[in-house]
Amino acid sequence: KSNSFCTLLIMDPQQQRVTSRVLPQPPETTVGGEAPGTTNAAIEQLIGSDPAACRYVKRRHLGSGSFGSAWKVEESTTGLPYAAKLMNTNQMSAKDRGFVANEVRCLKACDHPNIVKHVLSTDVDGMILIVMEYADGGDLYKQIKARQPGMKYFKEHEILFIFLQLCLALDHIHCQRMMHRDLKTANVLLTATGLVKLGDFGFSRMYEDSLSNPVGSTFCGTPYYLSPELWRRAPYSKKSEMWALGCVLYEVMALRRPYSGRHMDDLIDNIIHARYEPLPEHYSPELRNVVAQLMQIDPAKRPSLRQLFQQPFIRNNGLTTLKRSVENHSRIPEQTRNELVQSINNVLACESADYDGPRVVPKTGTLKRHAAESGWKDCVLTLSENAIEMRDVDDGATETVELKALTSVCPIDATIAIEQFVFAMKNQTGKAFWFKEKDQASFEEWLTVLQNAMPY
What EC class is this (predicted)? Predict the structure, then answer.
């Protein structure tokens, strides 16, 4: 039987004891229809209605989209609940198929207790099944909506616990050299044990940060969380993600989004001038100041996650209290509890706020560079502490890109490059440089050192 409420773990700083608070959970979605053409024989052996005939049994329809359905399922042999997406990629555009592929790659790359875990994914004749961890407490957006009648505000320590778990999830993603790119309360999932799970990686980027592309071509999420620089057609960056994090924190505190408008122009104008209503004064000045820092108009003035973790209020009032609460919470499985405590310890152990900066490992090698006029030519590529130099072996011509101007490094699919082991980098002007290595190992080595050297 499914839960009818979500228990959010809290530790009351005044009482210094573990308590719980019952949060109303939205009514369950009734079983609905499935998008046409979303099953075939091979897929039906994995997901279906008969426990004797499939691995995952459909228990509740969670929603439908243009290309398929989402279900709460149970593994037939264990009875464990999972969430499953079933999609028909034959009906998708190449761009939409890319979003699905991104989601699978990024879920597989992440292993953190505050991120929805990838369980299984398979593609059978254009039918894609993605099985993920199931969060039984609904999403944060619905929890906020449930509190709006009567304005039943979260307590400050509840907010900190939600916010810090989200920060830990984002920190893990950023350390994998990824960005989520669709951070919003609807993508923050809750569990009955009080754990927060970040989900929906459809718009994420693993190799290609897309930092040099304008918002119109790189961001497909809701406009309410887009930062001022994105509306000015600046590149997407981790500082854009910090703005969205500030919007989420504001929304949890105020039970409403920080930015709105009668029409889109009003919304954009309010965002680019950071005009939002003051936060409720019953929250501490320190917590309200976190929102103010994250929603600085100038992205350079916003803190990074690691800078945020160094602030005394976040470390002492937040992370240490969260750690103590998790350690004392027996309903969280031991392995998950240990993983989360270790994640918090890793953050607390770091004394420098800048240790998540670029890691430059100098490297020189000869490989092929593509030129529009002459095709592939030998090139000496040199990565130094501050720049990348490209020298043509034949004529000695040299071109330099400063690392601070580097916006993207990514592999190029062989179907596009018509060659294997091709990667590209872009600078702030949008100019692309294509290179080809001789084998997989050399290709991956260059990708790694160049991506690690990218500015955040």
Answer: transferase
Helix, strand, or coil (residue 302):
coil
C-alpha span between 448 and 456 (Å, rounded): 15
Residue carrying the six token digits 């994995």: 46
Q: Are 55 and 104 in contact (CB under 8 A)?
A: no
Question: Could you read off the pLDDT of 16-48 as tens digits, one per residue?
Answer: 333 333 333 333 333 333 444 444 777 888 998
User: What element of type H or E holds 363?
Assistant: strand 363-371
CATH 1.10.150.530 is held by the domain 26-133 = no
CB atoms within 10 A of CB 79: 9
Which CATH number is 363-453's, of 3.40.50.2000, 3.40.30.10, 2.30.29.30, 1.10.287.1700? 2.30.29.30
Between CA 99 and CA 27, with CA 83 as vertex, the angle to 5 degrees is 110
- Residue 26 corresponds to which tokens in the numbers above? 């939205």
What are the tokens at 357? 């900066």
Kindly provide the residue ranges of all beta strands, DSSP E only, lying in 125-179, ordered along the sequence: 127-133
Q: What is the pLDDT of residues 151-160, one digit of tens each?
A: 999 999 999 9
- From 139, 182, 200, 209, active-site residue: 182
Tell whether 377 is in a known binding site. Answer: no
Q: How far apart are CA 323 and CA 349, in angstroms?
A: 13
141 alpha carbon, distance to own chain's centre: 17
